[in-house]
Amino acid sequence: MPALFNNHSAIVTGAGQGIGYEIARQLALQGTAVILNDIDETLAQQAAAAIVKDGGVCHAMGGDSADISFIESMVQKAVSLYGHLSFAVCNAGITLYGSFLSYPVNDFERVMNVNLRGSFFLAQAAAKQFIQQNSGGSILFMSSVTGHQGINNLAAYSMTKAALEMLAKNLVVELSPHQITVNALAPGATITERTMEYDDYVKVWSRITPMGRPASVHDIANAALFLLSPASRHITGQSLVVDGGWTSVSPLPPDK
């Protein structure tokens, strides 16, 4: 596996912890030099330091992944540090629950800004760099099973995830001639620092997931690395669901 990722570089947003961190860590430990972003600069620095301690090459960049100038600075930093850019993992996202009938405008705009604006323009900036390098490259959007199945109080979040999957499909038209693959990964219930804040999370999702447990971050990172690797170079415009079979049956967790 390491030979697939040696001499590459990547940007991974929203990677201070959880799924993003594990993707960044696995890429780094398998030979990719990583720009690790999180809006929490301290968290980004701690995460990058942990990866470096384990033997990976990783540089932290704390900042807003939806800010256009900051997006451009991440691409520039990857090129200045590592000479080129190979992968862009558009992982940063926020979830703000709320009833559709009373959902606040400010919450709507925050979810759209981070989940869509940030992902769209990181993909654009990365694609421009890939084309300039004449190297090809891979873009990965982080979707969700909520982009496939309706869940109460997640209308705004869910629409962003479905939109990212359509964006991956649409970009095939413009980016395939440049040997750039664009895919989406849709995790189901996953054990992270954030989800463990919910009472009985593992118990509830173990009961309603056909495979008998929620995903680990390693499960999701394994799928991400496959979609970024040369092993998937003829796969583009696709959405891969990693959910232990949940979307096949779709039992909902109890409403909180």
Describe the protein.
It is a single chain. The protein has a seven-stranded parallel sheet with strand order 3-2-1-4-5-6-7, sandwiched between helices. It has 256 residues and is of the alpha/beta class. Helix 2 runs parallel beside helix 3, helix 2 packs across helix 8 (217-228) and helix 5 runs parallel beside helix 6. The protein has one domain: NAD(P)-binding Rossmann-like Domain (Rossmann fold, 3-Layer(aba) Sandwich). The protein is 46% helix and 15% strand. It has nine helices and seven strands, in the order αβαβαβαβαβαβααβα.
Helices and strands, with pairings:
Blueprint: H1 2-5, E1 8-12, H2 18-29, E2 32-38, H3 41-53, E3 58-62, H4 68-82, E4 87-90, H5 105-133, E5 137-142, H6 155-175, E6 180-187, H7 201-208, H8 217-228, E7 239-242, H9 246-249
Parallel strand pairs: 1-2, 1-4, 2-3, 4-5, 5-6, 6-7
Helix pairs in contact: 2-3, 2-8, 4-5, 5-6
